[in-house]
Write a structure and sequence with these properties.
Elements (H helix, E strand, L loop, with lengths): L10 E5 L2 E2 L5 E5 L2 E5 L7 E9 L3 E9 L27 H19 L24 E8 L4 E6 L6 E3 L11 H14 L13 E8 L5 E7 L7 H11 L3 E8 L13 E5 L3 E5 L2 E5 L9 H15 L6 E5 L5 H7 L4 E6 L2 H13 L5 E5 L2 H10 L6 E4 L8 H10 L3 E6 L2 H11 L5 E8 L9 E7 L1
Parallel strand pairs: 4-6, 11-12, 16-17, 16-19, 17-18, 19-20
Antiparallel strand pairs: 1-5, 2-3, 3-4, 5-6, 7-8, 7-10, 8-9, 10-11, 12-13, 14-15, 20-22, 21-22
Helix pairs in contact: 1-9, 2-3, 7-8
């Protein structure tokens, strides 16, 4: 059956073959690939076709006929509706096996590498895959008298109300209770995406393993009504509450926070300890979402870098300097490159707080700063790449091939673009000598992967 003849709402009997990139089931019917959330490899089921594309289709489970032993009972009461997690119905070890296969498939198919399965070791899973994430962004909807806080359904902006989340480090119940009460008692209108009216858009909660919490309100104005009432409510309901901030965002679209935030009460920052070093978590800063697994990730990157006392390291896309400072203890000099000024300031503060003096941070785009450094004669021994999902830009590739560092340690949360970039470096003489996936996003799609390239 070709895609052109497959019809929406058609019922098919299928058997799942494997898990896809978002832990959805992947099936085939007459040569057509179908993606079905919630189904596991080996399970036979009846599916209803939802959407048909030329080369693939989406479907949903109508009835399960044969169950896999890998099926698990979800531990979240709204898991079947919330889009935050995609793998709670799966035995945790199977999610790790699926993510390992993702890495292997991308490195071979996209990156063009010739690998054996042993070249991609098992994913380093979390000792505790629940209560592990240090950030939650809760959209707000409903009305001032019936406010709704929660997460969006997958691939929609339909809000699923929650009272708590079992994936976050700390309970969210106190914050949610305080926000709801404050909105009702002070007639605080939630933002309406369709009409572009209302005040409160999102509630962003930043946490650390010590039990501290920052609450950041994304709103259409930087002036907060009834501030004292909200502070009192948060203090009464959340023992870990340390600071309240507001970030003005008047723009339409999916961006959550505005470019700045303002402290309304309490602490400007909270701190997290990684590998014995202290790091600031600010309202707007990027920080890896899973601190326990971040330590595993950085230990892996340090091991792959094989640093010597006299080495110079460039940390591209340095953020708040976490990788830079962790590596600085093992080499002579680290140069961090980061385009976000607030992140660079945090990196410098973090370096000073930890007594680290062999780092410097440059505020500039990596695709501009790295070629300039190389043109000025810098020849780093090791370059660490930790780019956003889009991967690295061509000027970065060109600069690396000109400088030819001994090792490139490439950390990525999006293996397809990592594999694409590796394919550009291999013709220049680099080869992959080590690879290690790390499960940063427990019970969700995606995997963090560390690769070492040497020439």
């Amino acid at each position: 059956m070709a895609a052109a003849t497959l019809q929406k709402n058609q019922i098919l009997r299928l058997t799942c073959e494997r898990l896809g990139a978002d832990l959805e089931g992947v099936c085939h019917h007459d040569g057509l690939t179908l993606f079905v959330p919630g189904i596991l490899p080996g399970e036979t089921f009846d599916a209803r076709v939802l959407k048909v594309q030329p080369n693939y289709a989406f479907a949903r489970i109508e009835s399960l006929l044969e169950l896999s032993n890998d099926r698990a009972e979800p531990f979240c009461p709204v898991y079947d509706r919330c889009g935050g997690c995609s793998g709670q119905h799966i035995r945790y070890q199977l999610t790790l096996e699926a993510k390992r296969q993702q890495v292997f498939d991308n490195l071979t198919r996209v990156g063009g590498l010739t690998l054996t399965p042993d070249d991609v070791p098992p994913v380093l899973g979390a000792e505790s895959p629940t209560h592990c994430r240090n950030k939650a962004s809760l959209p707000v909807s409903g009305s001032s008298q019936a406010p709704v806080l929660g997460f969006y359904r997958k691939r929609s902006h339909d809000l699923v109300e929650i009272d708590d989340c079992p994936i976050t480090l700390l309970s969210l119940s106190g914050v949610i209770k305080a926000i709801r009460q404050w909105m009702r008692e002070n007639r605080i209108e939630p933002y309406n995406e369709r009409t572009h009216t209302g005040f409160l858009r999102h509630v962003v909660v930043r946490q650390n393993r010590a039990g501290d919490m920052l609450v950041v309100l994304a709103a259409t104005s930087a002036t907060l009504p009834a501030r004292d009432a909200l502070v009192h409510g948060l203090q009464q309901n959340e023992p870990g509450f340390k600071g309240l901030h507001i970030s003005e965002n008047k723009l339409r679209g999916n961006a959550i926070l505005g470019p700045k935030s303002r402290n309304l009460f309490g602490a400007d920052v909270i701190t997290e300890t990684l590998l014995g070093l202290q790091f600031e978590i600010t309202p707007l800063s990027f920080f890896q979402v899973n601190p326990a697994q971040t330590e595993v990730l950085y230990q892996t990157a340090i091991r792959f870098a094989k640093l010597s006392a006299g080495d110079t390291v460039v940390d591209a896309y340095a953020g708040g300097g976490t990788v830079s400072l962790c590596m600085a203890r093992h080499c002579q000099r680290v140069i961090g490159l980061e385009i976000v000024p607030q992140a660079v300031e945090s990196a410098r503060v973090n370096a000073k707080a930890n007594g680290i003096q062999n780092t410097e941070f440059i505020t500039d785009a990596v695709e501009t700063a790295l070629p300039k450094l190389i043109a000025d004669g810098l020849r780093p021994d090791v370059v660490v790449l930790d780019p956003p999902r889009k991967g690295v830009e061509q000027p970065v590739i060109d600069a690396l091939l000109e400088a030819r560092p001994k090792r490139i340690v490439y950390i990525s949360c999006h293996v397809p673009t990592q594999a694409r970039d590796i394919a550009k470096l291999v013709p220049g003489g680099y080869r992959m000598t080590a690879c290690q996936p790390v499960d940063m996003f427990c019970y969700a799609g995606g995997v963090e992967n560390v690769v070492c390239l040497e020439c």
